[in-house]
Amino acid sequence: MEGTQTEATQTEAAEDAALERYLGVWAIADDAKRHDAVAALWSADGVEFVEGARFEGRARIADRVKEAHDAFVATGRYIVGWDNDLSVHGDVLRFTIHLAEPVAGDRPGEVAWAARVFLLLDEHGLVQQSYQLTVKPLPVS
In sequence order, what are the beta bridge partners of 99? Predict the structure, then answer.
């Protein structure tokens, strides 16, 4: 029984680490650090699917993360957060990520965009596949 608790605790720690790395990667401003964070999160042949687009391999994923960071976070318009709704089934993590108004904004904490995220982890705890399915689109400006 004790071994089971240890395995469960290790699994939960790996899931929490993957979630934290995923959320954190979008807020990294430095290109080299972001590239390293992508390498620490996705497997070498990892794939991300977003709104009908497919980003394959770490270099393409790093470019996609940079583009999203530059458009939404670097501008100071939004901060990245999540809905504290992690659920796990085997090697699949599901949670909701969102972009919210910063505390100093006109509408502090208001969620402007949200997506359901599914991460399929490999045997090393790296993301093999990730899916972002928008559940609340950004308002048209």
Answer: 80, 113
Question: Token digits for 15?
Answer: 């899931």
pLDDT on residue 20: 92
Here the tokens at position 136 are 């609340």
Token pair recorded at residue 63: 């470019």
Tokens of 128: 């093999």
DSSP the chain: -HHHHHHHHHHHHHHHHHHHHHHHHTT--SHHHHHHHHHHHEEEEEEEEETTEEEESHHHHHHHHHHHIIIIITTSS-EEEE-S--EEETTEEEEEEEEE--TTSSSTT-EEEEEEEEEEE-TTS-EEEEEEEEEEPPPP-
Question: Is the separation of the CB atoms in 130 and 118 below 8 Å?
Answer: yes
Query: Are 133 and 114 spatial neighbours (Cβ–Cβ below 8 Å)?
Result: no
Q: What averages of pLDDT result for each successive group of 10 residues across the chain (141 residues)?
A: 52 79 94 96 97 96 97 93 94 96 80 96 95 93 65
Within a 10 A sphere around the Cβ of 97, how many other Cβ atoms? 19
